């Protein structure tokens, strides 16, 4: 096991609680005993270094004071509702399911139902709340994760029973696995005459999703999102899974969490949907959101009702920020506005630091150095090829590479062009993309350039394997 906040605290002569809170500021939620990855430790160390130098200019000690005040509460933990994301292949019924749920189980219903799409909503099943993120699609999900927000507890994978496992089904599985969220399979469209839910089960076993009646532990529910058949059963299964996970948070500390979506409204100014993940968010709270700041001026739920406070797992729409943050940005509440402003400005600096980190993305060219510097145990790779045979050949050969105990971890491999979802996954997992007889889509190409993702294209499998091996040994010929 690596170093945790406690160890790091000793090293940096700081209280572990302060380290944890500092990590919060940097967009990471950890507990004392969780081991930290090398990246995190470096960013943190660098951050403290920078602070030490600039202490006279920015009143950083105020920010630290905020953290100290928070620290006494961290031991208190209360159960919180699960946060669920729905993923799956296009047309398999994600939107239909979200719409059905919105209409059948709304909590805000008493006051006239959900009146606005704010990117997330809560519903009630037998007195238990479930939060749904209203933005289906694994690309958005992984984009957020790439920005540091891990806001999904459970993934519901929708697979149409008349269509079976399709390319985006596989993408969704890999994205969920990389994010370490358990998957519940909703086999949809069972009302269709040509529905074959059994076939879906058999197909998914090839991807490690083994149903309970086959000795596995993946929950499968046959549903019709259109008719609402078994949707209650699906919700009960989500609650069951949530129960097993013992999801908890501390509502007694200052609010903290992530941005689900944000926009500029002509009348209201910057508007952001926040998911509270820790503590309680109150109207009037001074707040830092990404590198924006302000005071929570208005706070409403998906029904447009005003809220005074919001506890963990509650999505709310707020106004009062000085600028528009980005989806996936983290937020924290401060005790006063002055500190919030100072912290907001510090966050802007951290954003620059993050950009520098982005320049350190793993590529074949810097692979050898990265492996040494970051003590890498595995090289993450995504494979895209024109035919399944090549996908498997490449994947099998790459997995066999072993350079001084470091090997290749294929996090996603499928047939098709390199798409934006691949870029998002590569970004979130610091992976290299290898394309065989395929090209990136124009959008993916642009995105790869922006995010500095190394996309390598080959026509000869051997060359790909040769390059990766050479790169891991530090003997890759420069391509320019
Ligand atoms: P998405 O792309 O995954 O969001 O898929 P949609 O929710 O837009 O659904 C695609 C199509 O499948 C629409 O025409 C839906 O009406 C239809 N559909 C979704 N769920 C069901 C279902 O349970 N049964 C049937 N028969 N059709 C469904």
Q: Characteristics of this structure?
A:
37% helix, binds guanosine-5'-diphosphate, 24% strand, 480 residues, six-stranded antiparallel β-barrel, GTP-binding, 21 strands, six-stranded mixed β-sheet, alpha/beta, cytoplasm
Outline the structure in words.
With 480 residues, the chain is an alpha/beta fold. It has 15 helices and 21 strands. It has helices spanning 5-12, 16-25, 38-54, 60-71, 94-104, 138-146, 167-178, 197-205, 231-245, 337-358, 367-373, 388-400, 420-429, 442-451, 461-473; strands at 78-79, 83-88, 120-125, 128-133, 154-160, 183-188, 219-222, 248-249, 256-265, 269-278, 281-282, 286-289, 292-300, 309-310, 315-321, 330-333, 378-385, 402-403, 406-415, 432-436, 455-458. The strands form 5 sheets. It has a 6-stranded mixed sheet, with helices on both faces. Strands 9-10-15-13-12-16 form a 6-stranded antiparallel barrel. Strand 20 (432-436), helix 14 (442-451) and strand 21 form a beta-alpha-beta unit. Helix 2 (16-25) crosses helix 4, helix 6 (138-146) packs parallel to helix 7 (167-178) and helix 12 packs parallel to helix 15. It starts with a helix and ends in a 7-residue tail after the last helix. Bound molecules: guanosine-5'-diphosphate (GDP). Guanosine-5'-diphosphate binds at residues 88, 90-96, 136, 188-189, 191-192, 224-226. Guanosine-5'-diphosphate (GDP) binds at residues 88, 90-96, 136, 188-189, 191-192, 224-226.
């Amino acid at each position: 096991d690596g170093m945790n906040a406690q160890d790091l605290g000793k090293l940096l002569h700081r209280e572990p609680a302060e380290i944890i809170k500092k990590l919060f500021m940097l967009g990471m939620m950890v507990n004392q005993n969780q081991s930290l990855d090398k990246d995190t430790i470096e960013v943190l160390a660098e951050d403290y270094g920078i602070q030490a130098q600039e202490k006279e200019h920015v009143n950083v000690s105020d920010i630290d004071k905020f953290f100290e005040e928070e620290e006494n509460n961290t031991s208190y933990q209360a159960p919180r509702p699960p946060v669920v994301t729905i993923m799956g292949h296009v047309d398999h019924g994600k939107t239909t399911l979200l719409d059905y749920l919105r209409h059948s189980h709304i909590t805000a219903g008493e006051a006239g139902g959900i009146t606005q799409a704010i990117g997330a909503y809560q519903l009630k099943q037998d007195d238990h709340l479930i939060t749904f993120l209203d933005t289906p699609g694994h690309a958005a999900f992984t984009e957020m994760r790439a920005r540091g927000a891990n806001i999904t507890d459970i993934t519901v994978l929708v697979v149409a029973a008349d269509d079976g496992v399709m390319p985006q089904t596989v993408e969704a599985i890999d994205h969920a696995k990389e994010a370490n969220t358990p998957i519940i399979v909703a086999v949809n469209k069972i009302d269709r005459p040509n529905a074959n839910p059994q076939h879906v089960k058999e197909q998914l076993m090839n991807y490690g999703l083994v149903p309970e009646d086959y000795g596995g532990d993946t929950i499968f529910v046959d549903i019709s999102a259109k008719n609402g058949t078994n949707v209650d059963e699906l919700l009960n299964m989500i609650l069951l899974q949530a129960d097993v996970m013992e999801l908890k948070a501390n509502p007694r500390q200052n609010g903290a969490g992530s941005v689900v979506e944000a926009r500029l409204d002509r009348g209201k100014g910057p508007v952001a949907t926040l998911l509270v993940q820790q503590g309680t968010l109150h109207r009037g709270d001074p707040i830092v959101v990404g590198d924006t700041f302000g005071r929570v001026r208005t706070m409403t739920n998906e029904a447009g009702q005003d809220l005074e406070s919001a506890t963990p797992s509650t999505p709310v729409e707020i106004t009062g920020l000085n600028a528009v943050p980005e989806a996936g940005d983290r937020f924290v509440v401060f005790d006063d506005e002055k500190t919030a402003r100072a912290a907001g400005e510090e966050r802007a600096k951290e954003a620059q630091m993050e950009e520098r980190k982005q320049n350190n993305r793993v590529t074949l060219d810097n692979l050898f150095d990265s492996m040494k510097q970051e003590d890498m145990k595995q090289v993450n790779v995504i494979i895209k090829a024109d035919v399944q045979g090549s996908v498997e050949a490449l994947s099998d050969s790459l997995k066999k590479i072993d350079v001084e105990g470091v090997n290749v971890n294929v996090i996603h491999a499928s047939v098709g062009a390199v798409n934006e979802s691949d870029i998002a996954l590569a970004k979130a997992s610091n992976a290299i993309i290898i394309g065989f007889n395929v090209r990136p889509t124009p959008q993916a190409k642009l995105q790869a350039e922006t995010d500095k993702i190394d996309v390598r294209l080959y026509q000869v499998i051997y060359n790909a394997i040769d390059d990766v091996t050479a790169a891991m040994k530090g003997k890759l010929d420069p391509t320019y």
